Amino acid sequence: MRTCILALISFLYLQAQSQVIPLREQATVINEILGERLNNLLPSLMQETGIDMWVLVSREYNEDPVLETMLPAEWMSARRRTILVFYRNAQTGSYEKLAIARYNVGEHIKASWDMQKFPDQWDALADIIQIRKPARIGINTSKHHAHADGLDHTDYQEMMAKIPVAFRNKVVSAEDLAIRWLETRTEREMSIYPQLVAITHRIIDEGFSEKVITPGITTTDDVVWWFREKIKGMGLETWFQPSVAVQRNDPENFEHLRSFSNRPAGEIIRPGDLLHVDIGISYLRLNTDIQQHAYVLRAGETSLPPYLKSAFAKSNRLQDILTSNYAEGKTGNQVLAASLEQAKKEGITASIYTHPLGYHGHAAGSTIGLWDQQGGVPGAGDYPLHNKTAWSIELNTATDIPEWKKSIRIMLEEDGYLDKEGFRYINGRQKEIHLIPRPKYSTGTNHP
Q: Which residues contact 329 (CB under 8 A, 6 or more apart)?
């Protein structure tokens, strides 16, 4: 009884700490974090990656994925053509933030375009380059990392035609800097992230309950749209359409794609079904990405069938194997190979497709497998892991279920963080399958 009371207190405390703040307050928090990142984080990243000047260019509604994260909360897009220039003098350590634009870009990047002197915006950029004489000018071009490839063809051509000839051979890809900017989480952001993940877990707890699901009546699409309405009603956004899929004791084979693009529409949920959800929210410019399972109890059942409990444990074990291989400096392909090798030794049929998390749901950084590339991912998988990065630990295991005369997949995804202390889950992970209806006195939480 005492354990149930403590669990309930813990659950209510998380609820109290995870309220969605009004839009005006959200804008304040976003702008404060942005100021800390521009003023404190970015100079160190420029020094680390050896970029003296970083030039970012976007036109309205065609935003570079990096520049988009540098706009103030009140801006919904870039204004006309927006050019941002960040300059760090390698000798003196001095640092400047300049906007070759008609307006200040928020309070942290001041407009630095004398339109009387330079009617052509590109001439203003050329003047800044000529005066400061950077040794390396970084632009956002990249073969393997889409987030770092935001400079469009037209802007690239016009820029290269206008900058001083002596500096054209100093233009290099800012790939590493762009990725480091996007993937690095600050202390302030990591004080907020547990709230985002707790909210997402709480939404799943409610959606996978008898409050939402009535076996024999409720369909998977009903639950999907309940998730959408719930998220919207809380003042949040989702960065992809949630999915709800069913595995059950029937002749259908369950393939990975069946829970996504090949999912049957509007399946009626029945007793004995194993449910799967994939869901993510966006809040304060950060994103979550989580997959969990629930089981619909049959008449007379009060607990999970042992064969499903055993299958679920394999995916928990695969999570442990994967995260035990996390270390700064290892590449995604190295982590993938070591993890799959260990899983094979333990008799686990595994598939790993894990990705960074942050300003985007499928975020910048190292790729640890793709569902259709289990031998490694050229380019993105060769990029090393860094500390102070958030991750979505995404994977599945296949298990033969004699009772169902087929194999099932336990597909899990939980959000975590890597720093010098090692890897940890941001708000725990699912350790037990949700039960519908929920057993009496259960708080619905099983994440720590």
A: 384, 385
